[in-house]
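TICKET #2291
ISSUE: user wants both folds in one file
ATTACHMENT 1:
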Amino acid sequence: MPPPPRRIPAARPVGSVTRGTTNPNRLRRMDRWIAATHGAALRRCADPVAVDLGYGAAPWTAVELLTRLRAVRPDTEVVGIEIDPSRVAAAEPYARQGLTFAHGGFEVPLPAGRRPVLIRAANVLRQYDEDQVGAVWDRLRSRLAPGGLLVEGTCDEIGRRHVWVALGPDGPRTVTFAARLATLSRPSDLAERLPKALIHRNVPGEPVHSFLADFDRAWAAAAPFAPLGARQRWIRAVRSLADSGWPVTDNPTRWRQGEVTVRWAALAPGRRG
């Protein structure tokens, strides 16, 4: 009798287990930005699948991402991916048409032939060393569909302050700073939420430090607008940044949301803004 076929073990997921901290609506600012800026690509793509990578101990962020992206394209599918199998099992009761959960990591395990038009990786790389970030970015970008987007960043526990990098298959493109403006005493308060690629670069001589220092100065100069509300003061400060030469890529429609987006090249480590 021939021996039974040898079982080939499944490949080990790439990455490490995160703390798993999550809360409902934690990623609303990032989701809102994705829907506004990447919505056109989502509408025209052939296979509207998005990945919520490292969603954490509870699946709230994946559930919310599906709802927000389906407002842009109703047949969007979301796959929540977690490296901790117990978290995948805990999420299964929330699965439904268009929302599934899978065990995996930075290899982004999807069925053969499928590539995501979006990978969102929030609060995933904070525990990694800075010199590991580039390789993770490259691996995730390689999984994107043509025209796809990787959004990687960090926020506080309830999503009031958030900074993220947007990357296409070609590499990093922009950095977005977003906040509930009533919580800020000055824009550099967002420094504590810089993504791993930038957080250790907030020192004199680095572009991100220069940007935040200029933003604080613009915020101080816009103090006469404070009686009109933090939103008007923010808009005035961002306009001043753009006028002074920082490559702001968005417009007052986004600024009113408590956001500002700047070209990555101006903030990239080791380069001058």
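ATTACHMENT 2:
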Amino acid sequence: MAKPIRVWMAPPGPNPWKVIVVLEELGVPYEINSCKFADVKKPPFTNLNPNGRYPAIEDPNTGLVLWESGAIIQYVIEQYDTEKKLTYADLIQKHKLNQWLMFQMSGQGPYFGQAGWFNVLHHEKIQSAIDRYNAEAKRIIGVLEGALEGKQWLVGDKMTFADLSFVTWNDRFDATIMCEREKMFDGFPNVKAWHERMTGLPSWKRAMEKRAQLMDEQGLQWNGMPKGVNNMKEYEELMKKHAAAQAAAAKGE
């Protein structure tokens, strides 16, 4: 039996959970090394990922250390999806899957992330930035809506890693563009039905239960901020207070 893959993550971010959902769906053993976001830019994590972004994995079965969630997903599929549950052997379909994964990595993730930042986390409201990234996030959803017309999945006749790569960010679409959750896919019925098919999976539910537990252990809200903190300005002030308290403690005051 394979040894567990170690997944390094901070629990708030969507990208680590893309990997977890794929591992859950395939039944690949794993263990989570839950880190604080403040530790992402320093050792020991930067010894694994010099870019300082979660997630990264250590696979004791092959000795591989790997970062970038898309690359990790491709590796897990190639190494552990021997029954082709979430992929295809066919050349054309296989590359279509990678195409959609690249679109998730280059389109959905960055644009959703920027929309979420300027809507929720940035201490100053910059309407031009909010408008731009909200529009881009909706455009991404529109691309997916068209691709799903007349079918249930992005490629072929079954759910694949390409579909699963979108689910964690799509699940935050309401918070990303600041709309009511029940209305977040209004005008995008294909995306809505597709998303509901995936969030109804036992693998998704198990992953989100683990996320909730890890978030609670770190005293975090859904958006990664400490409980009681509402924006980046308040967060920075809290960090300054912590730094001052640590400095005072070091001096014995």
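RESOLUTION: both attachments delivered.
EXTRA DETAIL ON ATTACHMENT 2: The chain is about 55% helix and 5% strand.
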